[in-house]
TrEMBL record:
Enzyme class: transferase
Protein keywords: Acyltransferase, Transferase
MF term (GO), any: acyltransferase activity
The name this protein goes by in its record: Acyltransferase
Organism phylogeny: Bacteria, Bacillati, Actinomycetota, Actinomycetes, Streptosporangiales
Length: 212
């Protein structure tokens, strides 16, 4: 009996995957050749503003959304773009409101969270959840790896071939070939053709800090 259940579930997972040929795939602005969004999916809406490049695999229970809820007109342009040959780990959430651009060959661990919108707390008398949030574009360079549980906040620009450590909370601009880790995330290693992979020179950082 158990064997039959597992076989049936494999059939269900295959039939339930969202691909370019599936009816659900037609709702996206573009699904490239070989794209597969695993079954069961997470919350998916705003498909007309989502592009996914060729041969990208989206894990099970991954949420992909544009806007706060289904229905609003978000304009003519793509809001969420995931490049080709990417792999997005299970349980991850990618929530776009203005612009999230993920390059080619980007891999993530499970439960990664990426968003271009954040709550504000400007008015101390209004509940934070009722204050109008702010958007700031996010860009993740091609060839990067995001470890399990990483959080990518609005306004982040990751260069090419970057590594984000598991559990890191990332905001800001990071150059190509960086390893970033921590809360908040900082560059802990960088690659240059002259020196290879090295930790940043903390003495230079300290010298550049203003006196108080």
């Amino acid at each position: 009996m158990g064997v039959l259940i597992h076989r049936a579930y494999r059939v269900i997972r295959h039939a339930g995957a969202i691909t370019p040929a599936a009816p659900a795939g037609h709702r996206f602005r573009r699904l490239g050749d070989g794209v597969s969004i695993a079954f069961p999916p997470g919350a998916i809406f705003g498909e007309r503003w989502i592009e996914i490049g060729d041969h990208t695999l989206i894990g099970e229970r991954v949420s992909l959304s544009c806007g706060m809820m289904p229905g609003p007109d978000l304009g003519p342009d793509t809001i969420l773009r995931i490049g080709g040959n990417c792999s997005i780990g299970r349980g991850s959430h990618i929530v776009a409101h203005q612009s999230i651009d993920i390059g080619d060959d980007v891999f993530t661990g499970p439960y990664v969270y990426i968003t271009d919108q954040n709550h504000v707390y400007d008015d101390p008398d209004i509940p934070i959840g009722r204050q109008w949030p702010r958007n700031s574009p996010v860009s993740i360079g091609s060839g990067s790896w995001l470890g399990a549980g990483a959080i990518i906040l609005p306004g982040t620009t990751l260069g090419r071939q970057c590594v984000v450590a598991g559990g890191a909370v990332v905001r800001g601009e990071f150059p190509d070939h960086s390893v970033v880790a921590g809360v908040p995330a900082k560059v802990v290693r960088r690659y240059t053709p002259e020196s290879g992979w090295k930790a940043p020179d903390l003495s230079l950082v300290l010298e550049s800090e203003p006196e108080v």
